[in-house]
Amino acid sequence: MMTEVMVLIENKRCILIADDEPKMVRALRDFFCASGFCVLEAKDGKEALVLLFCDNVDVIDTILLDVMMPRMDGLTALKRIRESVSLTPVILLTAKGEEYDQLAGFSVGADDYITKPFSLSLLMARVEAVLRRFGKDMQKDTVAGKLDVNAAARTVFLSGRKLEMTRREYDLLCYLR
């Protein structure tokens, strides 16, 4: 599965959408695909955890997680993600807009909380903000001495020779530059 996902996400940011409403998932998938993202989909929290921890933990840049889902709700899934020491940014999407609901989401490790219905442009702004905070935004090319980082191609050259790097190594380099 990792090979398939790696081919899918080459030169793209990857987002995992976990929601039990097929129309919502379809709309979000179409929107994020059109915005240049690779999209992985889950119907509930259990499926989201399987996708995240089955070779994809280094691939997924952010997660959109519905709070109310069957089998495993979003808050339980988020607790498990944080217990695993995963730092993948998570944005909760929910119809529950009360302050205590939001506080519950933040208390288990949510990075942002968006109530439904929401505008896609606001959602994209929030996703971009979270990615920037975690150093996963699309960055500009960088040249530092003999090191050349091409952000669009996600390649690194040292003295003109291409360096083979894992996604995590590349992300770490971009975070540190």
Describe this structure in words.
This protein has seven helices and nine strands; from the N terminus they run αβαβαβαβαβαββββα. The protein is of the alpha/beta class and 177 residues long. It has two domains: 2-133, Rossmann fold; 142-176, Arc Repressor Mutant, subunit A (Orthogonal Bundle). Strand 3 (62-66), helix 4 and strand 4 (90-94) form a beta-alpha-beta unit. It is elongated and about 55 Å long.
Features:
disordered N terminus; 9 strands; 7 helices; alpha/beta; five-stranded parallel sheet; Arc Repressor Mutant, subunit A
The main sheet comes to: 5 strands, parallel
Please tally the β strands and state the result: 9
Number of domains: 2
The name of the CATH architecture of the largest domain is 3-Layer(aba) Sandwich
Specify the CATH class of the largest domain.
Alpha Beta
Record the strand order, biggest sheet.
Answer: 2-1-3-4-5
The N- and C-terminal alpha carbons lie at a distance of 31 Å
CATH superfamily of the largest domain: Response regulator
